[in-house]
Write a structure and sequence with these properties.
CATH superfamily of the largest domain: P-loop containing nucleotide triphosphate hydrolases
Largest sheet: 7 strands, mixed
CATH class of the largest domain: Alpha Beta
Number of strands: 17
Number of domains: 3
Shape: elongated
Oligomer: single chain
Distance between the termini: 51 Å
Length: 461
């Protein structure tokens, strides 16, 4: 056997996170990708799901269907089916008898141990080659270490997230303040970078001016633009976000925001204003159906789309209810019998608000819409590409989420769709203009502030 080759035994989660991982590990056929039999069983079980995990499983099944059988190795203890597809070499290994019992109360652990048994077979069979077990799951990697098997997580899971400077503070003599609007940012900051979307100009005498950067030009924030909104910004970073959104000069806005920072409220309120101005026709709210209760728990077998995904769209409904209460409170001579529920329904109709599950997006084209992608730290690059590729040139996309609250067990803060887009804000793109900001202050109220102070600060100590 060629000693330069590497053998990667992969866990189920490697495929479910992104089938592209199989291609990457193969490295144009330079390496062998080993699929344990138990991985096939788990992928087969996921195929019927209607979420992203089902999509990845079906994609892998299509890959196998296109592959050709190069050889079959029959041993007393195990069997190997050697397949090839384009430049990928896949070896599927099955044991005749497994040492690990299938425990009905803990099938996941039993499967992990059976996958490791196959990894042990691979170490023995490919004895002159570098065999590595690849898994996102630290428990599975620990089981492998017990068997003296070399383990790694995915390379992208070890990548660094750059420090972003979305808001930049610049010292400037106040005599220049009145002449800032419309000027090139390079006239005042020769070190300007693409990621410096917002500026706080501060003078020695204590005065400040705030601006966003559009096409490398300074646009001073005018608080008057917030007056018609159903919800006014509560802090400076919220003003930066809403100013960028209401300027309608950005195609894609990416917001990394902690819990209670008002990201969904601001997005809906800003979208409503842009529709009132005639810039767009509707709001499309997208949220992936991933729960923290299970590895990619899905709701594909509930009856009726409204009921299916209502639990995932509660943030939208809570936001509309909040705005409805505010409008009812501020209105004069209203019918006292008018309910919040009917007012919420009125908002849904007036602003043409739709909900969209990623699984429904294939084959669709969205036009004239502000598309809000919520909780996007729980969506992969595949889902991000799926949704954004549905938008035509008449759309605006707002991607919001928090890398502090990742519920998808197949993703982490290094490889989810939110992080991928945040990284792209460091570059200029010919196709569209991006804006990004991090909302760090909780505005939901005393409970959000309390939990932030108690729990977040404790994590950082």
């Amino acid at each position: 056997m060629n000693t330069k080759e590497k053998v990667y035994v992969i866990d189920t989660n490697v495929v479910l996170q992104n089938i592209q991982n199989v291609f990457n590990l193969s490295d144009d056929g330079s390496n062998i990708v080993v699929i344990p039999e138990t991985v096939l069983v788990e992928l087969e079980d996921k195929k019927k799901l209607h979420d992203e995990l089902g999509y990845q499983s079906r994609q892998f099944a299509r890959l196998l269907a296109k592959a050709t059988v190069d050889d079959i190795v029959l041993k007393k203890e195990f069997k190997i089916v050697k397949l090839s597809y384009e430049n990928i070499r896949i070896h599927i290994i099955s044991k005749e008898r497994y040492e690990s019992e299938m425990l009905t109360h803990n099938i996941a652990e039993s499967n992990d141990k059976r996958i490791i048994e196959v990894a042990s077979v691979a170490v023995e069979y490919y004895e002159k080659m570098d065999v590595t077990f690849i898994s996102i799951d630290i428990y599975a990697r620990t089981f492998a270490l017990f068997k003296n098997i070399k383990t790694e997580t995915l390379q992208e899971d070890r990548s660094d997230i750059p420090n972003f400077e979305f808001v930049k503070t610049l010292s400037l003599n106040s005599i220049y303040f009145n002449g800032l609007d419309g000027k090139s940012i390079y006239d005042f900051d020769p070190n300007y970078q693409n990621e410096n979307f917002s500026y706080e100009f501060v003078s020695d005498d204590g005065n400040s001016v705030y601006a966003i950067i559009i096409n490398q030009k300074i646009e001073i924030i005018d608080d008057a633009i917030f007056n018609p909104l159903a919800l006014r910004p509560a802090n400076l970073k919220q003003k930066f976000f809403l100013s960028a959104m209401l300027s309608n000069m950005y195609n894609l806005l990416v917001i990394d925001a902690k819990a209670g920072s008002g990201k969904t409220l601001l997005s809906i309120a800003g979208a409503m204003r842009l529709i009132e101005k005639g810039a767009y026709e509707k709001i499309v709210y997208v949220r992936n159906s991933i729960e923290s209760l299970d590895k990619g728990a899905e709701v594909g077998f509930l009856s009726g789309n409204d009921e299916k995904f209502r639990i995932y769209n509660m943030a939208l409904y809570d936001t509309l209810e909040f705005i409805a209460k505010k409008k009812l409170k501020n209105a004069q001579n209203i019918d006292q019998q008018e309910s919040i529920k009917s007012k919420t329904a009125e908002l849904m109709e007036k602003y043409n608000i739709e909900t969209l599950w990623p699984g429904e997006a294939r084959g669709r084209t969205l036009s004239g819409a502000i598309v809000i992608l919520d909780e996007w730290q729980n969506s992969s690059e595949n889902t991000t590409q799926l949704i954004l590729s549905r938008l035509d040139e008449s759309c605006m996309a707002i991607v919001i989420g928090s890398n502090r609250q990742i519920d998808n067990l197949y993703l982490n803060r290094f490889n989810n769709g939110l992080t991928t887009l945040l990284k792209q804000t460091r570059f200029e793109h010919p196709e569209l203009k991006m804006f990004a900001i991090e909302l760090t202050k909780a505005v939901r109220g005393r409970f959000a502030e309390f939990t932030e102070r108690i729990f977040e600060n404790k994590k950082n100590r």
